[in-house]
Write a structure and sequence with these properties.
three-stranded antiparallel beta sheet, 3 helices
Length: 66
């Protein structure tokens, strides 16, 4: 199974994914590139910038639009 397929299946099942989740769960170190590739294949994936409530660190949560 390709990294793109893993990410797409995760998005379909869980609804969203972050870089950290992709790295920990699937060993995908370049989620941004995989998302770009999936978008080029016609998948409607939305980027939502969030801020961690404790650390204040900003991150992106990718969501599959339906």
């Amino acid at each position: 199974m390709t990294q793109q397929t893993k990410i797409l299946k995760h998005l379909e099942k869980a609804g969203s994914i972050t870089v950290r989740e992709a790295l920990v769960e699937y060993s995908v170190s370049s989620l941004t590139k995989r998302i770009h590739e999936l978008r080029n294949q016609g998948h409607d994936i939305v980027s939502n910038t969030k801020t961690h409530p404790i650390t204040g660190q900003r991150y992106v949560r990718y969501t599959l639009s339906t």
